[in-house]
Specification:
With about 240 residues, the chain is mainly alpha-helical. It has one domain. The protein has 10 helices and no strands. The N and C termini lie far apart (about 70 Å). GO terms for molecular function: metal ion binding; pore-forming activity.
Length: about 240
Amino acid sequence: MKRVNSLQRFMNTRAGANCRYQPTCYEHAANCYTHAFLIVPAFVGMALLHRLSDDRWERITAWVYGMGLIALFLVSTVFHIISWKKSHMRSMEHCFHMCDRVVIYFFIAASYTPWLNLRELGPLAAHMRWFVWLMAAAGTIYVFNYHEKYKLVELAFYLTMGFFPALVVTSMSNTDGLYELAFGGFVYCLGVVFFKSDGVIPFAHAIWHVFVALAAAIHYYAIWKYLYRSSTLEDIRDV
């Protein structure tokens, strides 16, 4: 009984159907800090890829990927801060909650962009470069029309968008970095367990944030090593 009471200090009861979970103050703080600390590293990461770029196309790709990474952590942090201090900002909280959901779609598209832009693709696979953004736009429309109504459907959309472009990426002739890409995707999937465990596991959403950060770091490492750093080393060898 004492153990249950101690857990209740850090975790509220599970939310009902079509209702949003209300974190405790401890969980609110953890939700904010776990992504706030990653905003500056995301800026630095984007700047590094931009500096390693050899041409305009690589610089644009670095900017798109970097902005997706920054937006994910920045919007998430702002939403959780507003949600924590929401007494006079309910309409803004609702707006940023939708933005928090929308930015996930664009982050997924941005994460695939370096692989789709900087690796050689077949004529059919090349269409995935714009199709991932079409899927992100479709996800945005879904959020603005059915926000918080069908949570499992929304989760299915995220997973579909996360896995569908991988079919193209894994078919590339150059497979360097695909193990890291797959491992990062696996970490994201593990994190989904905590994403759906609010009210069951204390600090579940903050733990989900940690899994997102870890998976994003794995993907960033693969992009830096195999798409940007490797091309720079090849240029040095040619000289």
